[in-house]
């Protein structure tokens, strides 16, 4: 991780769960991390944790509603003005609604599409543009996708539209990789597809189904933790310059979620 010390990373959805843990890991390894979320109070609290206050890096919070393109563009304008560069873009923010295809609302579908697909595309486009402007050709894009971007789940019938957005993320990951290579760029692109991760996000999703007790479900096996995904991000960043890690699927040993 030495080559990343002092360099700038953006982490979306940084206020809790996987995003928060990724921020901690990068700061502890000496990176300047911009964490964004709709509410920045939790990110500011993370920055004040003892382990981070004594770390070689630092965490800066920027308020951004990823459903609003103007917010995303304003965030990148601030990054450009404050740091003049971006080296790593981690598209972690995601939205899942328990919205079956036959009964889900257009608003639920649109919200998932806006956060899981459109925001990811806009953030990636802006990040690559800023990398090129600042002469960075060894940058890294990482999409935090899902195991549900590779297969449909029979365990979550209300998640089919969500699965569709994550399948699109996988297509966008490979499409971006091809476009960058065609342009002669050495910017790398990777995706991580986690299975069940014990986070507030997952608990809140299951709470929408009155027939499921999320805490009882999580006690039936040993789920992944946010740190497992943060460690996977570090693994990608540690890859040597001549190696590009493409797609990683990580699942709990005891539960396939499929």
Automatic annotation (TrEMBL):
**What Pfam families would the database entry show?**
adh_short
Q: Report if keyword Oxidoreductase is assigned.
A: yes
Which GO molecular function terms does the record list?
oxidoreductase activity, acting on the CH-OH group of donors, NAD or NADP as acceptor
UniProt entry keywords in alphabetical sequence:
Oxidoreductase
What this protein is called in its record is Dehydrogenase/reductase SDR family member 11
InterPro entries attached to this UniProt entry: NAD(P)-bd_dom_sf, SDR_fam
Superkingdom of the source species: Eukaryota
The UniProt entry's sequence similarity note says:
Belongs to the short-chain dehydrogenases/reductases (SDR) family.
Q: Does the keyword Oxidoreductase apply?
A: yes
